[in-house]
Amino acid sequence: MAMAKLILLVALVAATGSSCSAWRLNIRMPTAQAVEDAAERFEENVAAPVIHALRPLLGSGRHLSNLAGVPCDSWRLAVEAYNKRDWKTVPANCEGYVGHYMLGGHYRRDSRVVVDEAVAYAESLKLAGNGKEVWVFDIDETSLSNLPYYATHGFGTKPYNATSFNEYVLEGSAPALPESQRLFYKLISLGIKPVFLTGRTEDQRAITVQNLRRQGYSGWEKLLLKPIGFKATAIAYKSGERQKLQDAGYVIVGNIGDQWSDILGAPEGARTFKLPDPLYYIG
Ligand SMILES: [Mg+2]
Q1: Of 219, 197, 180, nearest to 268 (Cα)?
Q2: How high is the mean pLDDT of the chain?
Q3: What residue range is the signal peptide (predicted)?
């Protein structure tokens, strides 16, 4: 503290002295109280350097960093950036945060940014127009949204329950994610054929087709589902299917999904797009 006071005293004198012509008239020693006050401000600024006149409400300001929402926001960022992997459930204290994110408009806004980029990219392509250019779409949390299910199952805070989730899938009632659907139809208008590639299994083909059609999807080139009993990671399965597409002469100009396992593993596609998904992780 003594050293801080000394530094501040020197700084105050120097600062006062820098006013050139006013030097002789205005110079005076700061009072003890002024030094004390400045020392407190100095200590505060060590904890949270002032880089803008507006003090941050989130992230760096002592007790402010403990406000509800900040840890969950950081958790979500780590998930989206693929720094956090192999997680089983959303942290219990983040249920409300994820719920608000998904339902409060943030999720849709984030999805819109991704799709705007995808559309701009697609429009920039010089296409061969030979009918072989395809774009791979994941289904769950990409083409269709299972938010109605997750909203009644803790927004991902509860362990995955295959029985109840598959019951939901078999209702065939999942709504379309409007942003992805916009991309889907933009691609068709450009002459790029959508291919669905999903971790859903073959026995769910009929209900998946029904669900997609009910939600306004039509005109896809292929719907690739996982063979029943197929054992492989999502990355191995999906990259293997993309390789088969390439081997059949298709050119994968784009690939979009909500999981990193949708877009990792050669051949990924000429460009990949990652939609947000803080609800669950598939490795
Ligand atoms: Mg998905």
Answers
A1: 197
A2: 85
A3: 1-22
pLDDT of the residue at 65: 43
pLDDT, one tens digit per residue, over 184-199 is 999 999 999 999 999 9
Domain enclosing residue 11, as ranges:
1-18+26-46
Residue 35 sits in the same domain as residue 127 = no
Q: Give me ligand 1 centre to Cα 150, in Å.
A: 14
- What's the CA gap between 214 and 210, in Å, rounded? 6
| Weakly modelled stretches of the chain, pLDDT under 70 | 1-32, 34-70
In a domain, 110, yes or no: yes
How many domains is the chain partitioned into structurally?
Answer: 2
Question: How many helices and strands, by DSSP H and E, does the chain display?
Answer: 12, 5
How many angstroms separate the alpha carbon of residue 135 from the centre of ligand 1? 15
Considering the domain boundaries, does residue 54 fall inside one? no
Same domain? For 215 and 97 the reply is yes
Look at residue 38 in the predicted model and tell me its pLDDT. 59
CA of 140 to the centre of ligand 1 (A): 4
- Say how many Å lie between the CA of residue 92 and the centre of ligand 1: 22
- Cis amide leading into 227 (omega within 30): no
> Ion ligand 1 — residues with CB under 5 Å?
138, 140-142, 258
Provide CB contacts within 8 A for 261, sequence distance 6+.
Answer: 233, 234, 235, 238, 282, 283
Quote the ligand 1 centre to 136 CA distance (angstroms): 12
DSSP type of residue 204: G
CATH of the domain at 186: 3.40.50.1000
Distance 129 CA to ligand 1 centre (A): 28
Asked if 153 and 13 sit in the same domain, the reply is no
> How much distance in Å is there from the Cα of 277 to the middle of ligand 1?
8
Reported pTM: 0.77
31 with 93, same domain: the answer is no
Instruction: Kindly give the distance from the C-alpha atom of residue 264 to the centroid of ligand 1, in angstroms, as a whole number.
Output: 13
Dihedrals phi, psi of 90, to nearest 5 degrees: -65, 140
Determine the distance separating the centroid of ligand 1 and the alpha carbon of 12, expressed in angstroms.
59
- Domain membership of residue 282 (yes or no) is no
